[in-house]
Write a structure and sequence with these properties.
There is one protein chain. With about 425 residues, this protein is mainly alpha-helical. The protein has one domain (about 15-415): Ammonium transporter fold. The chain has helices at about 10-35, 40-70, 85-90, 105-125, 135-155, 160-165, 175-190, 195-200, 205-225, 235-260, 265-280, 290-315, 315-320, 325-345, 350-355, 370-395, 405-410, 410-415, and strands at about 70-75, 75-80, 90-95, 100-105. A two-stranded antiparallel ribbon has the order 1-2. It has a two-stranded antiparallel ribbon with strand order 3-4. Helix 1 runs parallel beside helix 4 (about 105-125), helix 5 (about 135-155) packs antiparallel against helix 16 (about 370-395) and helix 9 runs antiparallel to helix 10 (about 235-260). The protein starts with 7 loop residues before the first helix and ends in a 19-residue tail after the last helix.
Length: about 425
């Protein structure tokens, strides 16, 4: 039965956007992780992402969605509770604290916000691949979602105190990427490093598979940023175009940096540049113009490259922490950078189109927006430093955070009883050491 508030075009776009964001995780990051790690960790790495996607959804509909987008409980958190009754699912989408409505049902809103929450946990996994105990990961996913992600989401998107202040996070530069980058770095430090032999030699087992995942990630970002106006609107189109402009500029810039410094263009480096571009434009996508998108792409192709390839190799602070895929550089640094540049480059016209009252950023004379962006970043950083550390320490009282040395030596076969590729005999598994 048709209802007056339902816009079928908006609903169709929102469900499409949510689905392609979901594809970024499954199969996007699943196959990217499987390809970028050593062969012996392909299944474990892929399964960490696959598991997170499923576990987040169940926690999301039973209690976490309302903590991020429901009625206010604290200035930074909504009241927990289930959201899956038929009455809730069929009503018009409403974020009660911010009084935001959309012309599609709550079921669509819940699913759209779920895929954002899921990919955040999948990104955190990138920092601890190749050594985190899978059982510890199974506990970490719902706990971190509950006590960290929902706080950031409510504070910035659900009507909490940061959104009230006027901090801009268009599509998750802070809520998703800065959070994931800080949490991954803390987790990498607390869980401990990979085996020394793995850390010294961790060549990707399948670069082409990695590129398949990277391509899904890039194009899936059209739903990531294009879905956040909650409508098939002009702002959605601007956000999608800006997303691709920044990403392309970042890929080219990172590749140029590789050629200048390493004398060779690296496809793995280009993928890193793609990721930093996608992350950097995320907080700004619908509020900057094309020139702003190019500027962000230049910055995300240079600064995270420098922190990863120069500071990351020279500073003992970074060398001591085994962040497997450099999530701190690609997500925390790029997310922070994108958030601050949003304060600089946001335009009045973009803010108006997105429905914000913010009078643009520094480019339009509003330097106060830069200060607000710094406050938002500081809160997200502090939140994730504290909560990630506490959650991991609590989990360590129940199960070990790191696999034992023998399991680390063997990899997938010891953890899951499976191997990624059957390149021997008639497909039978290789014998486990000691058999």
């Amino acid at each position: 039965m048709s209802v007056a508030w339902l816009n079928t075009g908006d609903n169709a776009w929102q469900l499409t956007a949510a689905t392609i964001v979901g594809l970024q995780s499954v199969p996007g990051l699943v196959v990217l992780y499987a390809g970028i790690v050593k062969k012996k960790w392909a299944i474990n790495s892929a399964f960490m992402a696959f598991y997170a996607f499923a576990a987040v959804l169940i926690a999301w509909v039973l209690w976490a969605y309302n903590m991020g987008f429901g009625n206010q409980w604290f200035p930074f958190l909504g009241h927990p509770g289930p959201i899956i009754s038929m009455q809730n699912e069929l009503t018009q989408a409403l974020l009660p604290t911010s009084k935001t409505t959309a012309n599609f049902p709550m079921a669509t809103m819940v699913y759209f916000q779920f895929v954002f929450a899921a990919i955040t946990l999948v990104l955190i996994a990138g920092g601890v691949l190749g050594r985190m105990n899978f059982k510890a990961w199974m506990l970490f996913v719902p706990l971190w979602l509950t006590f960290s992600y929902t706080v950031g989401a409510f504070s910035l998107w659900g009507g909490g105190f940061l959104s009230t202040m006027g901090v801009i996070d268009y599509s998750g530069g802070y809520v998703i990427h800065l959070s994931a980058g800080i949490a991954a770095f803390v987790a990498a430090a607390v869980v401990g490093p990979r085996l020394a032999r793995d850390r010294e030699n961790f060549q990707p087992n399948n670069v082409l598979l990695m590129l398949v995942g990277a391509g899904i990630l890039w194009l899936g970002w059209n739903g990531f940023n294009g879905g956040d106006p909650y409508a098939a609107s002009r702002d959605a189109g601007a956000a999608v175009l800006n997303t691709n402009i920044t990403t392309a500029m970042s890929v080219l810039t990172w590749t140029a940096m590789d050629i200048l410094y390493f004398k060779k263009p690296s496809v793995i480096g280009a993928v890193q540049g793609m990721i930093t571009g996608l992350v950097g434009i995320t907080p700004a996508a619908g509020v900057v113009d094309g020139f702003g998108a190019i500027a962000i792409g230049l910055a995300t192709g240079i600064i995270p490259w420098f922190t990863m390839n120069i500071l990351g190799k020279r500073l003992s602070f970074f060398r001591k922490v085994d962040d497997t895929l450099g999530v701190f550089h690609t997500h925390a640094v790029a997310g922070f950078l994108g958030g601050i540049l949003t304060g600089v480059l946001a335009t009045k016209a973009g803010c108006v189109a997105y429905g914000l009252s913010n009078p643009g950023g520094a480019i339009d004379g509003n330097w106060h927006q830069v200060w607000l962006q710094l406050i938002g970043a500081a809160f997200i950083i502090a939140l994730n430093l504290v909560m990630t550390y506490v959650i991991l320490k609590v989990i360590s009282l129940v199960v070990p955070l790191r696999m034992d040395e023998e399991t680390l030596l063997i990899g997938d076969d010891a953890v899951h009883g499976e191997e990624a590729y059957a390149f021997f005999g008639e497909g039978e598994r290789q014998p486990v050491l000691g058999d």
